[in-house]
Amino acid sequence: MPAEKTAIQGRVLLVSAPWPLFNRPSLPLGALKAYLRKTLPHIQTDACHLFLQVAQALGYDRYQGVSRRVWRAEAVFSALLYPEHAHLAESLYTRTLKRGDAATDDFQQLVRQVKGVMGGWLQRINWSALDLVGFTISFCQVTASLYLISKIKDICPSLPVVVGGSSFSGERSADLLNVFPHIDYLVVGEGERPLAGLLRHLTAPRPRSIPGLPDGLFTADTKPGEMDRFCQLHRLDRLPAPDYDDYFNMLAGFSPHHRFFPVLPVEASRGCWWHRQDAAGQFGGCAFCNLNLQWQGYRTKGAQQVVLEMDYLAQRHQVLSLTFADNAFPMKQASSIFDGIRGLGRDLSIFTELRANTPPSLLRKMKLAGVDTVQVGIEALSSHLLAKMNKGVRVIDNLSLMKHCEALGIVNASNLMLHFPGSDDQDVNETLHSLAFARWYRPLKTVSFWLGLESPTYRFARRFHIRSVFNHPNLKKLFPEPVAANLRFMIQGYRGDRTRQLKLWRTVEKKTRQWQKDYDTLQRQTGGKPALAFRDGGRFIIIDQHLPMQATVRHRLTGISAEIYRYCHIPRALKQVAGMFAAHSPEQIRAFFKSMVKKRLIFEEGDCYLSLAAPASWLQ
Ligand code: SF4
Question: What domain range includes position 67?
Fold first, then answer.
């Protein structure tokens, strides 16, 4: 018997504007659509992953060239939103271009092309048939969303518009409603419940019979004191799997040479569990982070739910590449999640973010489940600096994780943050020292610190040698002065020790460039295997130490030396080692460590030691 159809009593269109990564559907859209379909089956919910259409029209390489940089991406739609200021947007765009850049240098032609694509899309939709249009706005999507909203309101002034997303979270985000009166509602925080509440309100037979607006939703009339009225799901375990059908339907409509195999975003949690207070007891979490303004607390899905969702999505869309969108992977469930994924018996390719204290045993499970790329919150190779950032790990922990990624053949696509305000000579010197020991591992990508709105560095600016904070000056190139003054952008400007920082970190930048060159050479020399690895012979081990453009140095450790080397595969305190190998005095053990550190085979931090050679057997 055919399923009974629910009579449609309302229509909503959710939009994700350019410039997110084109090769994956929008997780916020997918999650919202699935939730609305489950909660309000009588409302027809469509999700438009509009960025994909733009990427196809521009060509994927050209799109990617623009989408890679936030100011560059925002400049394109700024020129459409404020044609009289287009020359400023163009100057901002041009300033971001580098030699050999994939992005076009013909800004005006790019803007014309994007305008044409948007014009076609705006015309194709019957706006008056909708009850609501919603925009989810994250990085790079601000000007594009605002431009589209203004055009939609030109076509259909009475259509209510709601916006939400990470770009407008936290204090003063409601200013947006005053600056852009085209926007009727703003969701501050998670979208599911406020959006469902709004739709109930708008589609009720007698709207006035539903008193007030649901929590988490704001209008231009909202009073400042009401801004923290978060309204999020208590638990994630009843959330349905994200609905990506609209993205795949769009892709299927492209000519064959424009189709590709997308990556599927999944989430096991929302928020972050890393809350440990900094030494002064002023804030919890990492000092530079503002990723979690959208959520209150930390919530996770159940392990089985995550595994089943991943399998469902992979099977439905016949795609094997998945990416976890979690800011902080749930460590308590991690083992069960990866065992479960492995149990599916699929050849998956998975990306996830991790904290540096992930145990090697878990990393192995991840590899067996299909994790081939990770981004680890390394950020620094100086423990003095890591403490300022409140990362809760030491350099020795970072090196340990880097080694284990190397040993397992997991690509470690992590960052080394330069120019953190308040860094000093000690931070730089420690970094330079660590680099000499990290040289065997995949190089970190250097990124320059940027000030995140409402991050601890922003809130406790003085502590980080920041004298004043203000809207980023680039905002004035994107928006006319009165608008720029009243918008709070996620990237903030500041006055502090930036000039000093740029100078201070120059040597590290140079050394990191050399690290990359040497690593590439070593990869060619070893055929992609770890440049520092040991093979186990039972009572002895043999360590191969490859050096760029030089003969390999081979070391043999026997007996107790081999045992200690194996034992220090994770950071071990001298006391622990001495306790384990009690037949030998701490002085003898220390002398062994000293000789190993000299040869760069062991890293020493305080009284802790880490063997640097990766076990060759892990790659098998
Ligand atoms: S950087 Fe990652 S671990 Fe640190 S507070 Fe932010 S989300 Fe949490």
Answer: 10-226
